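Supplementary notes for students who missed Thursday's class. We covered one full example, reproduced here. Read the sequence, then the structure, then the short commentary at the end.
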Amino acid sequence: MNSIKVGLLVGSLRKESFNKKLARAAMELAPPSMNMEIMSIGDLPFYNEDIDQDPPAAFREFREKIRSMDAILFFTPEYNRSVPAVLKNALDIGSRPYGKNSWDGKPAGVISVSIGDIGGFGANHHLRQSLVFVNMPVMQQPEAYIGGAMGLFDDSGKLIKEETITFMKQVLGAFETWVKTQRGASS
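Structure (token representation):
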């Protein structure tokens, strides 16, 4: 596998989202073999099993986009010790209808970004529980809880904290290895 297509899912819809800024930084810091794309989830209608027989185009397109990716990297803030509703909705849409789970077997990673000191620890682990159920092997190490988000970026949204840049390169390098290992294991 020369090129790895990685879908980035950002659980924050806020215009100045720290998670979105870090996802954009990841696109610049990633190893050359990784081709990353932010997958839009903000306009997806709420999942409703009643419409599975004739799903809206947005559901079909999102599910197809998931299937086209080699791996998924999630960026999540923490809302009430969990993930934002928009991210949970995306998980539900991708895992349905029953028996047609688009996430199935896709290697995954989780990065949580927060203004707090513990860097979204609760959301990170809550998301991991859901990913286990949809059968996504999740990279275990290094864990990525990015705290103090208010001091990480300049006014243009560029990641400027050297320690975070170095850490993100380590995370993305490990993720590249993780994806290659998982894809090789499924061959």
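Commentary. The first strand starts at residue 4 and ends at 10. The chain has one domain: 4-185. If anything here is unclear, bring it to office hours.
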